[in-house]
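Example record for the data management plan.
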Amino acid sequence: MLSQKNKKSWSNPWFVGLIGVVATAVLVNSILIWKAYHDRSTLVDHEYSTNDRKSDTETIDDIQAQNSLAWKVTVKQPKIIKLATPASYEIDVADRQGVPVSGQMEVVAYRSADAEKDFAVPFKEVADGQYQGNISFPLKGYWELRIRITRAKDVFEVGSSKFVVAQTQ
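Corresponding structural encoding:
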C-alpha cells in the first residue's frame, strides 16, 4: 500500500487522482455551458415570451372558432417527395354540410429542425373548394404543412402529419 504510507498529502496518488477527476468534471461542464450559450439551437424560440403570443382567452376563442367552422380538408400529395423538385398538391375544402369552401389559401411548409427554412406558398383555387399548388422543398428531412384558409372573416387552420423529403438520386 504505497499510497497509505505516503504522508505527503499533495503527492498522494489518491488525492492527485481525485483532484484530476474533479477538475475534468468542472472543465467538461464549463465547455458544455459555454457551448449552450454560444451555439443556440434553432429549435428554441429565443423570444418566446414576446413573439406573437396570445393570451389563454384568445387561444380558447381561436379553438372554439375552429370547432364551430368544422371544415373538412383533404390533402392529396405525392407518395415520394424529392429534394428541390416541385411537388404537386391538391387540397379540397368543404364545410360541415359538404359544401365547397371558396376563399384564399396559404400553405406554410414547416420544418421543426430548422425554423429559418420555413416558407409559405399561396395556392390557387381551380374550382369551388379545390386548390392546387406546387411546393419545392429546399432541404431533405421531416416536414409538415400548415394550411390556412380564409373566407371573409372566417379563418381555418389545419396541419398535416410529418412526411419525409428524400434526397434526389
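Summary line stored alongside the record: Helices lie at 2-5, 13-38, 56-69.
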